[in-house]
Amino acid sequence: MGIFDFFKKKEEPKLSGELTLKDLQKGDFVDYFMKSWKVEEVTEYDWGNNIFSREFKLNAGDEIIYIEIDEEEDDMVSISKDEKMSKIQKGLKQHIIENDEPPKELDYNGTKYFFSEENLGECYEPGSSDVSKLVNWTFNDEDEDHFISLDRWDETDIEASVGEYAKIIEFSNIIRS
Question: pTM of the entire structure?
Answer without folding.
Answer: 0.87
